[in-house]
Design a protein that fits this description.
Protein name: Tryptophan 2,3-dioxygenase family protein
Number of helices: 17
Strand content: under 5%
Radius of gyration: 24 Å
Largest sheet: none
Distance between the termini: 74 Å
Order of helices and strands: HHHHHHHHHHHHHHHHH
InterPro entries: Trp/Indoleamine_2_3_dOase-like, Trp_2_3_dOase
Organism: Pedobacter jeongneungensis
Number of strands: 0
Structural class: mainly alpha
Helix content: 55-70%
């Protein structure tokens, strides 16, 4: 058969490529000749993926609980993939930055709009039974979510609000000792660190600290201000960062708050979360006032941060039950 000019050109390019590497092109062509065709299920390791659900109890709804959390972690991995592209871009432009933050917002939109699977997608009676077999594991222990926070803002913004001013010039190690989520994993009775928190710190502390140092000048807040100082038009980027701020610090915590109210709130005593966390004060955005980009919000907006969302959702859920 006669080769078209296009095929000959591709073969010449391949020859140049392998010659430059000191490799024999014919051997690679043999490999291509004998290799099987790729299938969808092999490419995404479908059989492995579908085998990763291992319920601890016989309650059917536990499998829903497992799969949704696995889906969540895959979305977090997508978000971190974009975070890395932004932080490590050699010649970062506003356009690239904006496009990647827009992708992250799409991931969080998918997560927050799908959380009804957790709020209404399981039988309350089943959940309250199988959850006891999960102790002390907790969604609190999502390391990827904490990494997204570190990539998104200056590390001081993740310090508990009561300590931010005092620790504004402290080292990252000192700030980490007062990071907000540690205050959300204390034992309800004694105020001591829960086993959930101790496990989490042991596994991730070194990784979090290194990432915080690596992103000290390449987190989203810092990069935004660098671009703005250089005269770039950051209007569109600011809009996407405001959306990200709301998704991560209001909508996503609120989704969990809705679930906690649905499954854990009882009269007159609330049920503790699986990690023993004081979720009533930890989850509502209006208590934490975690804001990545205070320079993008008015004083009034920050003062009212999350209040309307939490109060309206709580009222809706109480009426529903």
């Amino acid at each position: 058969m006669d080769f078209t000019p296009e095929i000959k050109d591709k073969l010449n390019q391949l020859q140049e490529k392998y010659t430059a590497m000191g490799q024999d092109m014919a051997s690679y062509l043999d490999g291509l000749l004998y290799a099987d065709f790729l299938t969808y299920w092999d490419y995404i390791h479908l059989d492995t993926l579908l085998s990763l659900q291992s319920p601890k109890t016989p309650f059917p709804d536990e499998e829903i609980f497992i799969m949704y959390h696995q889906i969540t972690e895959l979305y977090f991995k997508l978000a971190l993939h974009e975070c890395t592209q932004i932080a490590e871009h050699e010649n970062l432009t506003v356009e690239f930055f904006t496009a990647r933050v827009k992708r992250i917002n799409a991931y969080f939109n998918a997560l927050t709009t799908s959380f009804e699977v957790m709020v209404d997608g399981m039988e309350k009676e089943q959940f309250l039974k199988f959850r006891m077999s999960l102790l002390p594991a907790s969604g609190f222990q999502s390391g990827q979510y904490r990494m997204i926070e570190i990539c998104a803002t200056d590390f001081i913004r993740l310090v508990d609000k009561s300590k931010r001013k005092e620790l504004s010039t402290a080292t990252i190690e000192e700030q980490f000792e007062n990071i907000y989520w540690k205050f959300g994993a204390t034992e309800l009775a004694s105020g001591k660190q829960t086993l959930t928190l101790k496990q989490f710190i042991k596994k991730y502390a070194a990784q979090f600290l290194q990432l915080a140092k690596d992103r000290s000048l390449t987190n989203f807040s810092s990069l935004y201000q660098q671009l703005q100082a250089n005269g770039a038009d950051v209007t569109a980027l600011a809009e996407e960062l405001r959306k990200l701020d709301l998704y991560v610090n209001v909508e996503w915590p609120l989704s969990h708050y809705k679930s906690a109210v649905r499954y854990l709130e009882k009269d007159p005593v609330d049920v503790a979360a699986t990690g023993g966390t004081n979720w009533q004060k930890y989850l509502p955005p209006r208590f934490q006032k975690r804001i990545f980009y205070p320079f993008l919000w008015t004083d009034e907006q920050m003062e009212e941060w999350g209040k309307g969302w939490v109060l309206s959702v709580l009222k809706t859920l109480k009426n529903k039950d």
